[in-house]
Amino acid sequence: MAYLKMAGITKYFPGVVANSSVDFEVEEGEIHALVGENGAGKSTLMKILYGMEKSDAGEIFLHGQPVTITNPQAAIKLGIDMVHQHFELVPSLTVAENVTLGYEPRRGPFVDRQTMVERVRRLSEQFGLQVDPGARVSSLSVGAQQRVEILKLLYRDARLLILDEPSAVLTPQEVDDLFEVLRRLVAEGRTAIFITHKLREVMAICHRATVLRAGRVIGTVRVTETQPETIAQMMVGRDLEMPRRQTSHATPDRPRLIVCDVHAADDRGLPALRGISFAVNAGEIAGLAGVEGNGQTELIQTLVGLRFPERGDLVLDGRTITRERNRTRREHGLAVIPEDRNHQGLSLPSALSENLIATRYQGAPFSRWGVLVPGEIRRFAQRAIRDFDVRVRGPNVAVKTLSGGNAQKVVIARELAQPPAVLIAAQPTRGLDVGATQFVHNELLRLREQQTAILLISADLDELLALSDRLLVIFEGALVGELDRSQATRERLGLLMAGRAGEAAPA
Amino acid sequence: MDIVSLLDATLRISAPLILVGMAGLLSYQVGLINIALEGMMLSGAFAAVVFGYELGSTWLGVLMAIVVGAALGALFALAVITLRANLIVAGLALNFLATGGTAYLMDILYNQSGTLAPEGLRKLPAVTIPLLEDIPVLGEMLSGHSPLVYVSWVMVPLTSIFLYRMVVGGHIRAVGEHPEAAQTAGISVQGMQYLALILGGMLCGLAGAHLSVGDLPLFRERMTNDRGFIALAAVYFAAARPRLTAVACLLFGFFEALQFRLQLRDTALPNEFLQMLPYLMVVIALVVISVRKEWRKGW
Ligand SMILES: Nc1ncnc2c1ncn2[C@@H]1O[C@H](COP(=O)(O)OP(=O)(O)OP(=O)(O)O)[C@@H](O)[C@H]1O
Ligand SMILES: [Mg+2]
What is the DSSP string of A162-173? Predict the structure, then answer.
């Protein structure tokens, strides 16, 4: 008998069927992957299991017994607990306070702080989830925040752990650590449901995988008996061509972006960039690898014009732009796909068309005498929607209603409407499904053919290796390695990223 | 100028501000902007006089002021949380209701307008602190105030303990900062919001009672004179930290007391300027405080 069985789950949202008679079974002690495109209904199905959404039809069985789960508390009581796609942590509270929130050890009406910290520390040691119980969550890296989320589940003694895209925001090392923890948990007899867009992860850690497409179950497969291509094909309903790089288009003597000995400080005033120098040539994709927090964010901000360097120069197509503001840089041909599309890339409450012209509404053709020209804007938006295959009802819908993949397409449509001289692409496929990822990759390769110089910053080594002509490795604010695509391997990159340059030298 | 009487006045003037400040702080911490503090306070002031007179005991009047404050807090919560009324509109409505309602009730119950000073109603007895009262300057300053002044001082650490040491206080803060996180942790978001608003209402009632029966046993129309908003400003500037909020209220009280004295002294400055002084100084002081904090963080 299956440990968990969801039968005939149906969920309607206004205008969408998020789940349509979904049958889903999980065995005790397995790691079960739940995969599917953006908007396939994965999160919705799990929220129903966790009692955060109410299904319109269907039943849930645990050990064959029907259960009703009307709120998260009920789920937690049954041993079902969830780490959400967007973390549910209170930033100003400490790690221990967040882990125990709602279930605090008490002494009368007061919080028993000592016991609280002690228990969290013990739990963190027991499962190898390193965090300082007294640290404020706002000061933690994304990886550490995730450890806090998992500790929260373990503190409540979850038997079935639902992890909604836990790896999307992690660095490769952190993903390995997460897998280690997951293996330990299932070895103890716990069960996990693991949502991801990365097939490599499904193959690496999961026992079985269930594929959802447009709210329906396409099938459940045993991972050891299945090729990743088959799963990908089930997800998108067609064969996927993996992006294939053409031979190099680079024009070696035509650097379009030059970064020369750049020094910059981070928000706390500590040195974040310590003399970075590199160039990106026309028609070249330079990949920047590195563990998050080694200066990538500051480098992007410096290139974009959100942070001025203390020393050093930036040159775009022969023009020094070190002290120019963002708009001037854009006029000279800079385009940016920012790290965090929801906060930096888009204005979520604004309309799609407004987002599309956000970098070019000043002056003709979108405005005249300081007044916007709606007709032009609409035409431009409609063309962009068509060219970039954004799935929306029209140009006036608010961007916040779009799925992750579609939202990223809006950013890309805006940035690539005219082929830029230099493109800074930071985590361009984070959280995107295979189809959308492929779309983005193809766009980058298309630009490369058109002689754009592309700096690709990504936490996904596979992406870097698939697209880059040349790889740069950043560690503690300095470039510690530069590899030609032909010399680069995951292992060598990994060593360089860890700051172990000596061991990474070719044998 | 007599420093001692100046400081003495400072404490008296800031006491209701501190009480209302703590109320505003509670709603701020639970994530709601409470502009109805003013109306709750005014209603409390009225209730203290009416019930104090009718029941023949000023203390019972104070108790009823707290009850009325709590009831208005619950009403406000019902409107904005359960019935999802707009926070600002509902707050304004409650303030209008309080202003109009007290004037109306004064008219139909006592056939009075403007001021209600029922005969026989006594103010709260001043508290003299043994020993302390004998110390020359300090005694004069700290002893002999209306009891609610001391209550206001006690409320500051109590609020702090409530919010930062008690389980339910932690839940209030979690709800205010990240309601979804609180909800998934099994905390009732609405429950915490109700609680914070009702507790706030009680504090407002108490503050109102201090205004009406703390010094002179009388109620005047609009006697709260925008103190609810000043306290709210203090909460914002202090980023809802209890002690800093109290300091901001004291600061305002100080300049208000100073301003009164300067007006009497016939300086060259126009009275309007002097009246502005407390507001201006609070803004300046708090900006300096927060800028210095940021500075230490390294901008
Ligand atoms: N609260 C909501 N209101 C309206 N529609 C919703 C809501 N939540 C989800 N949807 C819609 O339901 C569908 C399924 O969404 P869901 O979040 O479950 O997808 P997903 O598979 O988790 O996608 P992703 O990989 O992007 O996280 C989508 O079309 C989405 O737009
Ligand atoms: Mg999802």
Answer: EEESTTTT--HH
Nearest-CA residue for ligand 1 atom 27 is A38
User: Distance between CA atoms of A437 and A197, rounded to whole angstroms?
Assistant: 10
User: Do residues B53 and B121 lie in contact, with contact meaning Cβ atoms separated by under 8 Å?
Assistant: yes
Q: Tell me which chain A residue has its CA closest to the CA of residue B184.
A: A72
Interface of B with A in 159-198 (CB under 8 A): 165-168, 170-171, 173-174, 177-178, 180-187
Q: In degrees to the nearest 10, what's the CA dihedral of A480, A485, A490, A493?
A: 0
A506 pLDDT band (50/70/90 cuts)? Answer: low
Ligand of minimum distance to the alpha carbon of A215: 1
**Six-digit token pair at A496?**
């360089």
Q: Which of B87, B125, B1, B106 is nearest to B43 (CA)?
A: B106
Structure tokens at B94: 């409650």
Nearest atom within ligand 1 for CA of residue A433: 25
**What is the CA A316 to chain-centroid distance, rounded?**
29
Query: Does any ligand 1 atom lie closer than 6 A to the CB of residue A402?
Result: no
* Contacts of residue B292, Cβ cutoff 8 Å, sequence gap at least 6: none
Backbone φ and ψ for A425, nearest 5 degrees, come out as: -110, 105
What is the mean predicted confidence (pLDDT) over A203-214? Answer: 94
Phi and psi angles of residue A258, each rounded to the nearest 5 degrees, phi first? -125, 125
Size of chain A in residues: 507
SS3 for A371?
Answer: strand
Angstrom distance (rounded) from CA B46 to CA B205? 9
pLDDT reported for residue A247:
66
pLDDT per residue as tens digits for the range B31-42: 999 999 999 999
Q: How far is Cα B204 from Cα A309, in angstroms, rounded to an integer? A: 52
CB A447 within 8 A of CB A280: no
> Which ligand places an atom closest to the C-alpha of A39?
1
Query: What are the beta bridge partners of residue A479?
Result: A474
DSSP calls for B238-292? TTT-HHHHHHHHHHHHHHHHHHHHHHHTT-SS-HHHHHHHHHHHHHHHHHHHHHH
User: Rounded CA gap, B161 and A51, in Å?
Assistant: 34
Report the distance separating Cα A439 and Cα A388, nearest Å: 9
Q: In this predicted model, what pLDDT tens digit does every residue of A440-478 receive, in sequence order?
A: 999 999 999 999 999 999 988 889 999 999 999 999 999
Pairwise CA distance, residues A297 & A301, whole Å: 6
As given in the structure block, the two tokens for residue A324 are 């120019």
**Residue (of A474, B292, A304, B97) closest to A314 by Cα position:** A304
Task: Provide the whole-model pTM.
Answer: 0.79
Distance from CA of B182 to the nearest CA of A (A): 7
- Beta-ladder partners of A274: A263
Instruction: Determine phi and psi for A106, rounding to 5 degrees.
Output: -120, 155
Three-state SS letters, A91-152? CCCEHHHHHHCCCCCEECCEECHHHHHHHHHHHHHHCCCCCCCCCEHHHCCHHHHHHHHHHH
* Percent of chain B residues topping a pLDDT of 70: 96
Residue B77 tokens, joined: 């919560």
DSSP-derived secondary structure for B19-86: HHHHHHHHHHHTT---TTHHHHHHHHHHHHHHHHHHTT-HHHHHHHHHHHHHHHHHHHHIIIIIS---
